[in-house]
Amino acid sequence: MTLSEVYFYMLIIIFLIFSFLIVFFSEDIKCKKYFLLFFKITFSIGWLGFVMQFFGWNFLCKYQLILMTFSPFMTLILIKGIMKLSNLFFKKEPFNISIRKEPLDGIWTKNNWNNNNFYFHLRYSNLIVVRPLLTIAALYGIIGRNFC
Questions:
Q1: Residue 125 main-chain phi, psi, to 5 deg
Q2: How many CB atoms sit inside 10 A of residue 68's CB?
Q3: Is the separation of the CB atoms in 116 and 124 below 8 Å?
Q4: Strand partners for 97
Q5: Are 104 and 27 in contact (CB under 8 A)?
Q6: What is the count of structural domains for the chain?
Q7: pTM here?
Q8: What is the mean pLDDT of residues 3-20?
Q9: Is the Cβ–Cβ distance between 65 and 58 less than 8 Å?
Q10: Are the C-beta atoms of residues 122 and 40 closer than 8 Å to each other?
């Protein structure tokens, strides 16, 4: 394995870690200002995949590289969609909580949850963690089997 490959896979791992950070700091996405900030950052990270592909710095399938670099962006959009659907269907604002029954704050936003709807918030938190992970893993497998 060359140094170039090590740097490539290190970048891919950093992009995936950034996706997980978006999941755990999802309270910030509720504020439009921070959502737009995350949107710009993740979209520019996604375009790095096209730049890497253009310069030939790719050790994966072409489409898998673009999926991995756009995974923070997809995570952000999926979480925002889950938030909007929860507000639409259940008419109450969901909050992200940890397994220890404590609220998870964002980087800038404080989580102001009420303990009355604990199981609603727990289901919402599980959905926010599982849905982006399963979607990206499924797309990675489909692209790997059909396009590479």
A1: -65, -40
A2: 21
A3: no
A4: 103
A5: yes
A6: 1
A7: 0.87
A8: 88
A9: yes
A10: no
